[in-house]
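Risk register update: the risk that structure generation would not scale has been downgraded. Supporting records follow, first protein first.
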Amino acid sequence: MTSELQSFIRFVTNERGLSRNTLQSYERDLLQFVSYLELQGISSWKDAGKIHLAGYLAQLKTLGRATATLS
């Protein structure tokens, strides 16, 4: 999954012109989501569904993450 993540980061870097801080935040957040998926036994983005995203967001909320972070 990390090669897909790197491809996405390259895409938004080239196409969207996002700031370095924003790109670093995207990458950090996505790496954390990938780690969550791996703990759930998911090894491919194609196998992840809405239920996995909802579970991840619920976990972040339980950990006390800010609403802006969840958004």
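Supporting record for the second protein:
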Amino acid sequence: MSNQNAPNGFQYFGRQEGGSPTVGYTIRKVKADNATAIGFGDPVSQLNTGYLTLSTAGTLSIYGIFAGCEYLNTAIGNVRWSPNWPGGTQGSDATCYIVTDPQALFVVQSDNTAITFGDIGLNINPAIGTPAVTAAGGYSTSTVAQSTLQTTTTLAFRVVGLLSQYIPAGSVNGTDDASPYNRVIVAPNFWDRKSLEGL
């Protein structure tokens, strides 16, 4: 079964073995007038104001993975939980829930060319997409860029496996490793919590 191009960002897959278990989120803010939409599963980065925003492709600093927010929605007149930040100007700064665990694992789609078993252990950068609107689920459309695979230490993620190692190959979308858009398991590599350099 050939894979379909249907990215949904970086979805939590579990934790690397050997660390103490944790399931908490880090609470941070997105500014009320941040016009850039952020989807559920998108990488986010910290601005020099202390607020977070959607990461850009090739960024050297990723704070974590966006997992929803709460903000004052003036259209309905109350604070609402949302899987995504819709962008534009909202009634308040958003309280955001971010996965920052440096031992977390995520499943994510390759942007095109298949990532192979021989690529496990290489580092890779995200390819940032435009997230779906709230009515369509608010999911990220970000992927990982197969063309960035290399040993360079400053890339944001490390490929630690293929989804087909956990689910029978060809049984679900993303498990056909012979066709584009396959799904891989990645771990944080160059993240703020793993870097000693100040933001």
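The mean pLDDT is 91. On this basis the risk owner (M.S.) recommends closing the item.
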